[in-house]
Amino acid sequence: MMMGQLEQLIHDYQVRYINSLQIAHPRVHSVMANLVVGCLLRAATVCGQFLQCLIKWLQVSYWISTPRAHPPDTLNSPKWGRHRQIHVHNLKLHYVENGSSNNPLMLFLHGVPDFWYTWRYQLKEFAKDYWTVALDLPGFGLSEEPRDAITYRMSNLARAVCELVETLGKTDCILVGNGCGALLGWHIVNQYPERVAKYIMMGLPSVGILQQLQEQNVIPLNVLLKLAFLSISQSLPIKLAQAGDYAMFTKLLGAFSKPQDLEAYKYTFSQPNALARVLAAFRENWNDFFVEEFEFGVRKTATIPGLYLVGENDHWIRLDEYSPLMVDKYQALETRFVPRTGRYLHQEDPKTVHRIMKEFLGKTDTHLPVERAQANNVETKVVVKEVCEKCYATEHKTIDKQHDECAKNCDGQEHRHIFTKQKLPICS
């Protein structure tokens, strides 16, 4: 009712204003009228949106989220892959795998707030030619929460990811990251190039380049203010994320996600302390952003083929602001726009992203794990078999007959815990 009356007043004012301009300045009346009326309409829209938000905030039910005791079926769907648990870096980590472990490893790193499910389409699409593995980073999804928050630091997460690659029996991987997962991916490319055969990063440049952009005052002030709010406030960001039954995820993903996909996100981040762990990971790296000089000072020499994808509608920093810096630091890098996509481009338009990824991966010969192992004189050995697919988080050792009972309820596949052992030459 109030909005209708306000629009009627604006319309009446427009008629009177145009008539006055037609008398005084007939040649400029349309431009001035459109400018003034546009400003008034914008102000009315902002006021209306604020009133709508205020009405929602005053409702007690808006701040009470729906309890979610059981995961939606899509999280356990076998079409995405098999759920595994593995001990790495003194942590029990969860990941989902698809394809054969004899193929080259393609490792996916999610962003914030996110978890393995963000890579569901890619897990399935590339399983024919690669061993696709989507990791829940420490403290996210079903991975164990670190005892100390310092584990969330970029350097520690990078070491954990590299240790995971080794534990899976691989010398290197094709590394794929999105958002904050891309920040971690860039760090691994800089510090551990021997663990990366190729890489595909999406959405964000490296932390070192972001620091350079900050020194040049390129990062928008509103972005810095939002990040500062997350780093200072303790419980308010969590309350806001839970408001409207986790409406934050509807806003981020609703335009391109199915209802079961939204429910998967809401279930995962409604679990105890899930959002608190996200904030802890963010804060541990936010402080370092302003006091620590990242990657380029101690960067190792590497000419790794790389692909950087940006959503066309992801406008928080224009690509031309930092593309010269990226070309200078990463010479073997190809940059591509993905049209009509934003922050979650790999979910918004997976077909286009898959096509671009395949074009990039097909430009050079795919390395063969067997030949690579023979060239490096490495022996691969199976040590432990554990964790059935549909047991989800239940571990079994090889000496435990419980696995035989478990096989009745799942496919009976066992998780291979692999290590590599260097063969030393015999010297006379």
Automatic annotation (TrEMBL):
Domain AB hydrolase-1: 104-316
Keywords: Hydrolase
Keyword Ligase: no
Xref: InterPro entries: AB_hydrolase_1, AB_hydrolase_fold, Epox_hydrolase-like
Alphabetical list of SUPFAM superfamilies matching this protein: alpha/beta-Hydrolases (SSF53474)
MF GO annotations: epoxide hydrolase activity
Family the UniProt entry places it in: Belongs to the AB hydrolase superfamily. Epoxide hydrolase family.
The protein's name: AB hydrolase-1 domain-containing protein
The organism of origin for this protein: Anopheles atroparvus (European mosquito)
